[in-house]
Amino acid sequence: MKKNNIKILAIESSCDETAAAVVEDGRKVLSNIISSQIDLHTIYGGVVPEIASRKHIENINLVIRDALKEANVTFDDIDAIAVTYGPGLVGALLVGVGEAKALAYGLKKPLIGVHHIKGHVFANLIEHENLKPPFVCLIVSGGHTEIAIVKDYNDFEIVAATRDDAAGEAFDKVARSVGLGYPGGPKIDRAAKLGNPFAIEFPKARVNDSKYDFSFSGVKSAVLNYQNKANMTGEKINVNDLAASFQRAVVEVLVEHTVTVAKDYNIKNVAMAGGVASNTALRSLMEGKCSEEGLKLHFPSPVYCTDNAAMIGVAAYYEYLNGNFKDLALNAVPNLEL
Ligand code: KG4
Ligand code: ZN
């Protein structure tokens, strides 16, 4: 089997973006098409799974057509079809998985199943040519908050996780409760820039019995209590101060634990992945702490932090090299483990 000029057509439909990309040799993104459903779900204040699935069906052939066109290739040039098969919303995942299986069968191409979070981590390889395992990666998305040690391309060890909500989920819930709306992360990020992060002291997002694990339920409840108290006393809330203070409580712990893991495991390269990795406060604090500690920090451009198919094409390349192919029995696995 050839090892160079491997072009993979990758499909991602695990949540509310329908995406397709063509990636060459796991690093070179020839196209990256994303059809976002954010506007559609905004009126409901969050992703409605049934609507997401229906929209994926409408859009999937269009994004694939555009991905091939932008990459200036045809199906003949494609060496394998890759798809996210979990974790995510089952109905949403099924649209991508069904499409990928149909293409693989019809075109007689190998089929590769990709773990969504592995894709997020490998998004770091797109723009950082010199980044190679081992590295420590903070994974912060709407459904995940973990610290992984990427020992090799196919060898991940999860050393920290959240005991309750994911970081992005906490951002989304707090944003909704203070009336900033959906999607919460970018809205809190923006509001926080106008606020004082030291205005309110919220509890830190950590747990007592673990050096590395996270817990976001305490800080989330503290924000809700703060709001209820203000409502009862008729006190006006400064939303920008609240956003900035909440964000500080979350971001400081994310940075502290990631740097601790890198030092404890003596790994010099640090990366960040997932939607929350585009948070400006997280990026700047992580940058500062890493440079203080002599660590090298990497993070993807915002377009590769949130859901996209290019990252799936990157992760798929390493499955391809390992000969790790799926057959037509491939199914969506909503709670797929890493
Ligand atoms: O990785 P992603 O696109 O989807 C999942 O796999 O979950 O992450 C989406 C999450 C949402 O919770 C969103 O609010 C959050 O990432 N997010 C942010 C920012 N941009 C997106 N959180 C904080 N600050 C941001 N700038
Ligand atoms: Zn994601």
TrEMBL record:
UniProt keyword list: Acyltransferase, Cytoplasm, Hydrolase, Iron, Metal-binding, Protease, Transferase, tRNA processing
InterPro entries, alphabetized: ATPase_NBD (IPR043129), Gcp-like_dom (IPR000905), KAE1/TsaD (IPR017861), Peptidase_M22_CS (IPR017860), TsaD (IPR022450)
Top-level taxon: Bacteria
Presence of the UniProt keyword Protease in the record: yes
Cofactor(s) the record lists: Fe(2+)
GO terms under biological process: proteolysis; tRNA threonylcarbamoyladenosine modification
GO molecular function, one term: iron ion binding
Protein name: tRNA N6-adenosine threonylcarbamoyltransferase
Species of provenance: Lachnoanaerobaculum saburreum F0468
